Amino acid sequence: MKRGISLRKMTPADFSFADSLRALAGWNQTIEDWKRLLALSPDGCFIAQWNGTPAGTATTICYGQDLAWIGMVLVQPDFRGRGIGRALLTCCLDHLRSGESECIKLDATLQGKLLYERLGFQKEWHLTRWECQTVKIPPSQAREEVRAYTDADAEAVSVLDRAAFGASRRDFLQSLLGGGSQTLIHETNQGMAGYGTLREGARARYLGPLVVRSTSSNEPLVHSLLTPALGQIVFWDIPDANSAAVTLAKRLGFTAQRHLVRMFLGTNRCPGDPRQYYAIADPAVG
After folding, report:
1. Torsion region of 191: left, alpha or beta (phi above 0 gives left; psi -120 to 50 gives alpha)
2. Is the pTM higher than 0.70?
């Protein structure tokens, strides 16, 4: 470890500092997101200190042994260039490897991509953040097949989500969908065709995760989810390979704001299907 850098586990007492770094970076997560990450991974969220002063954060979450995720890698601007980001990443990798995670993924900014490549990460696919400054929903087809999520839907949602995401993240979904988010189900005669969530963010409402089994479900579900956000700013992170989602976002007035790269380290046994993944859950968790 470089001189001056020390690493320790994150605690609830660190939320204020962590969220101040998030705000400096202009990211959209909330205190509730920090709480969720620490609750799901109490031994896998870290604080970096420089000579005892908090200077950076990083989080991890495991989806079984098949897949783990690194997120919220942030360094206070005054302490950048001292190896803190690399030390945090190395700490995360050591922690996840000790749990025998076969594959580790993250969503990298274009600025961070070079560091991750040096650590052995490979590109999987690209995604883009789309933003709408003032959501306006056009008249659409009847939405009687769209309804609110209930606890009885948990198993079917988990199965649908796994096909799109690539790994089971039942505990994460239970925490997210049971919180203050608005979660809707699109159901047809063939069963559950899609689910999606709209929730509060620090800078904008956030659409995602959103999984749709067929393109016929995308408009009624998306329109229903966005209706409570009329006149508000919404962020929507879409895999570039999902052309149907990109087309719909453009038609609703969303514009591309920034680009990210999904990267992986290890054996990628959980590629998922971006064509069903209409919106990711959050760059910090996949």
Report:
1. left
2. yes
